[in-house]
Design brief:
28% of the residues lie in helices and 27% in strands. It has 10 helices and 15 strands. Helix 2 packs across helix 8. 48% of the residues are buried. NADP nicotinamide-adenine-dinucleotide phosphate binds next to helix 1, helix 2 and helix 3.
């Protein structure tokens, strides 16, 4: 089969289309003939430094954390899926390829009204938001949620999910084009962080949950605008992972500071996220309250251009690779 390999750490040019053996599904896995694969910021981070992939980083690796496609083969113990099923799935790597083997319990049906191709934009965002905002952050209906980086893949999906959960939504973005888009999408309060300081504008708002991927000096500012018993959840620190914070703010308001990486979670945790997402979030797709926002699709061979676009941060929503 054909797959994009990260041939060494470096710029987008290290992504190369190469022939590689088709994977064989293990007993609890299915083999998916991939229709489309989502591109994620994490793929860019791995490409720049393959050491971030983990200790057992191979010489070359196939990036890609999510796909959609059709099941072509099932492992000996798979009971809940069959050959021919159309699915979207969260994977640990290997999505930029014609075939991928994945745990059957990490595959979900294509939501009603979403094309097989577009469904590749769903798993990574929904799994990450469900795990961090809902499971760790314990967001409740009518609470206030702020997601920084509103036009990221994560932001565009998470803000819609929170709105459909009956929450008040807040977000920040880096241009007028982006803030206009987010307002049209139905976000309640939107700030262009290049012209306004969110910690000043939202000083009295008492926000219940914040999902942050920026880190650095945002951390103390986030703590300042949280409500009593507020929850601050980290999924990255793009500005800086090293932060200064005042512990007094946490103690004075009984705040919770948490975060996670989705990729290294166990099969069992990812299965739990999949089951809870299917129960709580899939009906929101069916009722058309939420949908994936797709900015651009590239043929698989043009993965390097897809990474260049992601690194430009011009995009609004998701970038896909089409087989
Ligand atoms: N921990 C986890 O398990 C997990 C899982 C999924 C994603 N993530 C993280 O969540 C974030 C969103 O992921 P994604 O794939 O949806 O990303 P994405 O679509 O590439 O969006 C990232 C956006 O963040 C904004 N941004 C703010 N500060 C930035 C900075 N210092 N450098 C670059 N961009 C900055 C940019 O928009 P503006 O123009 O508005 O600044 C950019 O468009 C990423 O940081 C990713 O690593 C973590």
């Amino acid at each position: 089969m054909k797959a994009i390999h990260i041939t060494k750490s470096g710029g987008p040019e290290v992504l190369q289309l190469q022939e590689t053996p088709k994977p064989t599904p293990e007993k609890n896995q299915v083999l998916i003939k991939v229709k489309a694969a989502g591109v994620n910021r994490s793929d860019v981070i791995t490409r720049k430094n393959t050491a971030t992939y983990g200790k057992d980083s191979p010489q070359t690796l196939i990036p890609g954390l999510e796909v959609s496609g059709v099941i072509e083969e099932i492992g000996a113990e798979v009971k809940n899926k069959k050959v021919g099923d159309k699915v979207c799935a969260l994977i640990a790597d290997g999505g930029y390829a014609e075939y991928v083997a994945v745990e059957s319990s990490h595959c979900l049906p294509i939501p009603k009204g979403i094309s097989l191709e577009d469904a590749a934009a769903i798993p990574e965002t929904v799994f990450t938001v469900w795990f961090n905002v809902f499971m760790l952050g314990k967001l409740q209906p009518v609470e206030k949620l702020l997601i920084h980086g509103g036009t990221s893949g994560i932001g565009t999906m998470g803000l819609q999910m929170a709105k459909a959960w009956d929450c008040e939504t807040y977000t920040t973005a880096g241009s007028e084009e982006k803030t206009n888009f987010l307002k049209k999408m139905g976000v309640d309060k939107v700030i262009n962080y290049t012209t306004e300081a969110f910690e000043e504008v939202w000083k009295g708002e008492k926000i219940d949950v914040i999902l942050d991927m920026v880190g650095g000096d945002y951390t103390q500012k986030n703590l300042e605008i949280l409500n009593k018993k507020g929850r601050l959840v980290y999924i990255n620190g793009m500005k800086s992972m090293e932060v200064n914070l005042n512990l007094r703010t946490i103690m004075a308001k009984n705040l919770t500071l948490t975060g996670s990486f989705l990729k290294p979670q166990t099969v069992e945790v990812k299965t739990q996220i999949a089951q809870e997402a299917e129960k709580n979030i899939w009906p929101m797709f069916d009722s058309k309250e939420i949908h994936p926002i797709i900015y651009k699709k590239f043929p698989l061979a043009e993965a390097a251009d897809a990474h260049r676009l992601m690194e430009s941060s011009e995009h609004i929503g998701k970038i896909l690779l089409i087989m």
